[in-house]
Amino acid sequence: MEKWKAHSGSHFSTLFAEAGKNPCLAWVAGLLDGSPNVLTLGNGVQQTITKNSRLQVQSLSVTATSGPMSGATLLSHTYCYVGCTTGGAANNGNIWGITDTLKAANTQGFTYDSLNRIGNFSLNGTLNQKYDIDSFGNMSLDAGGTPVTSFDPATNRISNLPCAPSLAPLPSYDAAGNQMCSTDANGAVSHYAYDADGKIGQIALLGYESSPFVSYVYNPIGTRVRKNNAGGTYTEYVDFGGQPMAEKDQAGNWTDYIYADGRKIAREASASSIWMHGANSDPVEARVELSLAHSIAISAGDHLNFIQYQQASGGSVAGMNLIFDNGWQLNGSCGSCAGQPAAAVDQNSVAVDKWNANYATNYRSVDLSNFAGHSVSGAEILKDISAPGGSWDILISFISVTHADGSVDTIYNSTDPIGLNMPAEPNLSNNWVSYNGVPGPNTRYYLDDHLGTAQMELSPGGWPVWQGQFTPFGQEIVNGAPLLPGQADGSSMHYKFTGKERDAESGLDYFGARYYASNMGRWVSPDWSAKEEPVPYANLDDPQTLNLYGYVRNNPLSKADPDGHCPWCIGMAIGVVAEIGIDLYTHQDITARKIIGAAVGGAIAGASGGLGLEEGIAVRAAIASGGSIIGGITERAIKTGSLAAATKDPKAIVRDAAVGAVGSVAENGVRAAVGSTEKAAIQNLKGQATNTANRAAKIEGRIVRNTEKLAAKQEAAGTKANVLSGVVDKIHDRCGTGTCN
């Protein structure tokens, strides 16, 4: 089977994610483009991805294949590119809809303007966010038909930052264009200070700049290596190729991240259990009451899940219990409650509070269907009265209610403490409740979407303890509403939007080169280049790329920024279309497996520079439009294996590629692209055994003549349509009947 590398952080080891060799990844099966379509994690949870003929993600599903929830579907999404409810007359690579087949309320719809910039975002047909984008790519949320944010037309900086009046008379941007302040969900203003390299050095509450609540340390190449918190706690980072491999805290505790196919799949770190201890000589029931963040509505098919370990000198009988809004109890103990159901049982038909194994760990899933229509108002850990006398310890961890619609309510995530109360009981001595480690495996597993954005955190037992949903620009959504900076989501996972770290102290995402504000959909600092350029990473033919604060040209569903510089997310547009078209006409072996090979470590853009011709072309094509640009061509080339068959209809092939192109390329850009294409085409043609030097020279002459024709057309029309037509005509002239000679 295919071998996929995974990296284990602080030990700098390389694990091979093969069945039986890496406990974090049990199985991988690949798609035509080399990416995994079936990914089975070490806890038995399986992610399945399907793609259409353009190599665009068509569906994403997650199921439990083993463990206490075996057979349950945990997530099911389908993607729509054409003929969608919100639009999509043709498949140009834009995602118009993501249907949640488990929970309609989470179904997402999107619209776009004529420049392929996102227009609005809806949930289950109801508008959630509307985006106003000006001619230079400045995006503002819309409130009642009015943009929330206004911009300085000369600098593209925000001219009405909510924190600006509090910061005055100090400027809201420094001379380099760095945003100097922000406002959190409670209205508190944070003041940023930047180092000499333009990186955020510290953040303090306004007026308390001498006592920052966080500061950052960067290494000589600008990578963040340490985060210092005001209370004396800190996090140190071990980074490799732009990916965090490990973290260490002030107590010396290590967190290791495991990767496969360049994405995080697991985290090895200490986890905690709620530890209930006591001793009794006479039969006695003991309990620990757990604080709930909110009531939990129950529907048919919902489950209570938890890990239970216990040890006792004389044996123990214990488990959990839930209390409902009408007085019912999950263990069936409310004798005076009308209609009280019998005690709920787990997957092994053991009552929820009656597990009696000693010195053992059990993954338990309890069906809540008999309690559907009611809400959980309380939760508790119980030691049953039937247990023998003696001292005992009961440890419960990773507690959540997983709903049939795929949503998750976390009771205890085994990281963040919750309120605990152990009432005194007669005949109970030396009793207390605290936290301890988790006996047995404590690996947390992660699954993400097509952009690398975290979708689910899973327990060692295979049930989700957190599920994430995000707006197009990366704000996390909880109960249908975007979270604001400073608001918690109940997850200990801090790598979220496109897999980047979200700092709890600011709500900003650290991308490496810059920090990103998902609540504004833009960077807090302008883009910069190590090599001095008038406008870093800009395509001067495309005004949208001149905005140094804009995020991926306001098309965040089809593109992601790898490091904060976005050199490739702009798109290669027509130049890539022509290059791939000619490469396939000359029978280059462009396999999408080479794309995934170049993506090791998740740094697909940075890898392309050192590749050979065909790999480089494939990589650039994939980056340009998320893979869609090479879809139709690749499919035909691989299926036929024949130059003549693959080029039977040249115009159709080039249109397939052009469909995925984004942006507009004017005369100079196309001339440069065509120039490089000619060289590649001639070089490749000369390398074919069936081509003679005379035939190559003949084709070279045709290319030169057609380049002049193309330039003339551009000068005459100057439109994107003519650019596309010129590329089609150019290749059609060369291989009009499917035979290049």
Task: Write up this protein.
- It is a single chain.
- The protein has 741 residues and is α+β, with helices and mostly antiparallel strands.
- Among the domains are: 272-437, Jelly Rolls; 573-735, no CATH class.
- 17% of the residues lie in helices and 32% in strands.
- It has a twelve-stranded antiparallel beta sheet. Strands 3-4-5-6-7-8-9-10-11-12-13 form an eleven-stranded antiparallel beta sheet, with no helix packed on it.
- A hairpin with a 5-residue loop joins β34 (444-448) and β35 (454-458).
- α2 packs parallel to α11 (720-735).
- The longest helix is centred in the last third of the chain and has 25 residues, at 693-717.
- The radius of gyration is 29 Å and the shape is globular.
- It starts with a strand and ends in a 6-residue tail after the last helix.
- The relative contact order is 0.11.
Please give the structural blueprint.
Blueprint: E1 5-8, E2 13-16, E3 25-30, E4 36-41, E5 45-51, E6 57-64, E7 73-80, E8 97-100, E9 108-112, E10 118-123, E11 126-133, E12 139-143, E13 146-147, H1 164-167, E14 181-183, E15 189-194, E16 200-205, E17 214-218, E18 224-229, E19 234-240, E20 243-249, E21 254-260, E22 263-268, E23 272-280, E24 286-290, E25 296-297, E26 303-312, E27 318-324, E28 360-367, E29 375-383, E30 390-402, E31 408-412, E32 420-421, E33 428-437, E34 444-448, E35 454-458, E36 464-467, E37 477-478, E38 481-482, E39 501-502, E40 508-510, E41 515-517, E42 522-523, H2 573-585, H3 592-598, H4 604-607, H5 613-625, H6 631-640, H7 643-646, H8 650-659, H9 667-686, H10 693-717, H11 720-735
Antiparallel strand pairs: 1-2, 3-4, 4-5, 5-6, 6-7, 7-8, 8-9, 9-10, 10-11, 11-12, 12-13, 14-15, 15-16, 16-17, 17-18, 18-19, 19-20, 20-21, 21-22, 22-34, 23-30, 23-33, 24-29, 24-32, 25-29, 26-28, 26-30, 27-29, 30-31, 34-35, 35-36, 37-38, 39-40, 40-41, 41-42
Helix pairs in contact: 2-5, 2-8, 2-9, 2-11, 3-5, 8-11, 9-10, 10-11
